[in-house]
Amino acid sequence: MTILTHPVVAALFEAHVQHSHALLTGDGLIPHLTHELDADLANASLLTLNAVVTRDMIKSTVHAYAVEMPMAGGIPELVGDIARMLHAHPMQETTRLIDVISDQQVREIVAKAVEMREVRERVIHEVLGNPVLADMAGDLILRGIKGYLAQGNEAAKSIPGASALMGFGKSMLSKASPDLEKKLDEGLQTYVHKSTQATLRSSEKALLERLNDKALQRIALDFWAEIKHQPASALRRFVTAETLEECFVIGYEYWRSELRKTPYYQAVIDVGVDAFFDKYGDSSLAFILEEVGVTREMILREIVRFAPPILATLHEQGLLDGIIRRQLLPFYASGRIEAVLAAHGV
Fold it and tell me: Range of 157's domain?
């Protein structure tokens, strides 16, 4: 630690330390911080965003933390712990879905979703045109036909003489063409699948007409009416704690290892910063605070909430005095005070 040899300088230094200490721990702290806040806000009305920082500076900062910063291994574990605690929290038993989102909000969301006709039409077109769906539907129909024929054969056996006649017919067909039964089965299968594909394609228009705006809105609101009074814990039947944890971790890992490294993600950041500066670059800092809803009262409330207990803790731990001395000592050790005293003959 630098030792101040000039007695007046040393005395001034100690007086300054005591003054700062009393200001930060006494009853004058809040008035002092309030005065500083008002002065800062007055300055904020004189400074524009472009005058203080550039968009490239902000982009560099965002990229450094959102793209380039290595992520610690403890974050996935923390995310998993949070997910498990949320899943098991007692509030899930007492909180109904309607306590989280109101009927009016649901109606607005449904109305907006229903307006997205192009998306709806595209989804229906892709689903009905999917060959996997056509194959599944064809297989179901084919099984139904075979089951119906099998039931018919069983019923026919109860008729006197019918069983022998059927066996005779089948024997004759086998002699005439040993592969005829197999070919008939394959032909029926081909016909059913083609017919199913054609039916699905032709039903697209009818389905779109049935699933009109009013119908979809009614279906969605009816479903909401059935579930809105259920507790949030009802979702546990579908999502276990392990599943929720894994979803959180998978999402985080995807962002950490893949998404944030893509040019697309980085371009989104740059576009967002550019849009903000295009809109507010020439605006004052005070106006920007007002635009985002940050008021003097809000800032002062947080200052009062955090500053006194933090400073009190630093004082109790014996750290505040060292912080003050580190801030003031460079000036008192610089020789400036000795020069002023000499110039004034002191």
Answer: 103-230
What's the pLDDT at 173?
47
Nearest to 241 by CA among 249, 231, 251, 230: 249
48 by DSSP, 3-state: which?
strand
Answer positive or negative: Cα dihedral of 76, 80, 81, 85: positive
What is the spatial distance between Cα 225 and Cα 283, in angstroms, rounded to a whole number?
A: 47
75 in a structural domain: yes
d(CA 140, CA 214): 32
Residues 21 and 59 in one domain: yes
DSSP-derived secondary structure letter, 295: -
> What is the per-residue pLDDT for 40?
97
To which residue do tokens 């067909």 refer? 173
The number of distinct structural domains making up the chain is: 2
Give the Cα separation of 288 and 236 in Å (integer). Answer: 43
Beta-carbon count within 10 A of 41 CB: 16
In this structure, the answer to whether residues 45 and 112 fall within a common structural domain is no
Collect all residues with Cβ–Cβ distance below 8 Å to 25 and sequence separation of at least 6: 311, 312, 315, 320
Residue 89, in any domain of the structure: no
Low-confidence stretches of the chain (pLDDT beneath 50): 156, 162, 165-166, 168, 173, 180-181
Does some domain include residue 93? no
Helix (H, G, I), strand (E, B) or coil at 241: helix
DSSP 96: B
Contacts of 282 (CB under 8 A, 6+ apart): 48, 49, 50
Helix (H) and strand (E) counts in the chain: 19, 0
**Both 110 and 225 in a single domain?**
yes
